Amino acid sequence: MNSFSILVTFKSLLLGFLIIAFNSCEVTEPVLNPDYTGQIGQVADVEGNVYKTIGIGSQIWMAENLKTTLFNDNSPIPIILKDSIWAHIRSPAYCWYNNDSTTNKKLYGALYNFYTIETGLLCPTGWHVPDVSEWNTLAAFLGGNEIAGGKLKDYYTPYWKGPNLCIANNFGFRALPGGGRRNITGRFFGIRERGYWWTSRSDNYSQAFSRSMSHESTELDRFLTNKKYGFSIRCIKDQKNDTLTRRIK
User: Fold this and answer.
1) 3-state secondary structure 8-47
2) What is the dihedral of CA 181, 192, 138, 239, to 10 degrees?
3) At 222, phi and psi to the nearest 5?
4) 212: Cβ–Cβ under 8 A, 6 or more apart, which residues?
5) What are 232's strand-pairing partners?
6) What is the pLDDT of residue 7?
7) With contact defined as beta carbons under 8 Å apart, do 119 and 92 qualify?
8) 104 pLDDT more than 50
C-alpha cells in the first residue's frame, strides 16, 4: 500500500470516528425542580448518631430531631441543667427535656437555644438548619401552612396527645411533640402537646423565627421567639446544582 492509500484510509477512519462521536454526544444540563419525594437515606453527625432522611419535593430533610452534643468541629456544646442558668445564658447551650436523656434523647432529640445555631456548626457537614424560606417551600409543597402540620406530624404512633389532628400521609417527616424550654423560667413545657423547631433566621438581637405544630391543629405555625428558648432542630441537606446527562442523537 502506497503512502497515498494509507492517507486516504486514515482520513476515512478519522471521519468515521468523528461521525460516531457526534452521534453519541452527551451533554450535561441542570435539572429544574427536582422531586425527591419518598427517597429515604441516612446521615451521621460528628458524634456518630445516625438519622433517617426523607425527600419531600425538592428538599431532603432529616426524619428525626437532632441530638448531637458536639458541634461539627468536635467541640462540645455546653449542657445546662439548672433552670436559673438556662434562663439567663446568652451563649450556646442544649438540654434534654426534663433533663432526662434516658427517656427523651432517642425519641425527641435535644433542645437547643438559638445561640447554638448562630455558630454555623450545629448540623452535619453538607447539612444546615433550614431558613424561613425553606420551611415555606416545604409548607407550600404540602398545600400551605394551614394543613402542612397535619401532614408532617407522626400519624401512626401514640406520642401525640389526643386528639391528634392529622392528615394521613406517607411523607415520612415524623414530627413529634418534643416540647420546649422557656427563656424566663428555664422550665420545660409542652411535651406530647407541641413540637417546636428553630429556623436559622434571626430577627434582631434577642429574637429569631421558629415553627411549631400542635396536637389540636393541622397548621404549621410561625412564631417570633426569644433566642433563649430551647427548641428542637431538623437539619436540611444543602442544595446543589443537580445535573442531568442526556445523549444527543
Assistant:
1) HHHHHHHHHHHHHHHHCEEEEEECCCCCCCCCEEEEECCC
2) 60
3) -125, 135
4) 194, 195, 196, 197, 220, 221, 222, 223
5) 197
6) 44
7) yes
8) yes
**pLDDT per residue as tens digits for the range 4-47:** 454 444 445 444 544 444 444 454 555 567 899 999 999 999 99
| Whether residues 99 and 17 fall in one domain | no
Q: How far apart are CA 117 and CA 163, in angstroms?
A: 33
Let me know: does 106 contact 66? Beta carbons within 8 Å: no
Show the cell assigned to 167: 392528615
State whether 68 and 181 are in the same domain.
yes
Q: How many domains does the chain have?
A: 2
Q: Which domain holds residue 20?
A: 3-32
For residue 157, which amino acid is it?
T
Residues 240, 140, 202, 54, Cα dihedral to 10° = -50
Instruction: Give residue 240's pLDDT.
Output: 75
Q: In the beta sheet, which residues pair with residue 132? A: none
Hey, which residues does 60 pair with through a beta bridge? Answer: 55
Do residues 64 and 27 both lie within one domain?
no
Q: Count Cα neighbours of 67 within 13 Å in the Cβ-side half-sphere.
A: 22
The amino acid at 99: N
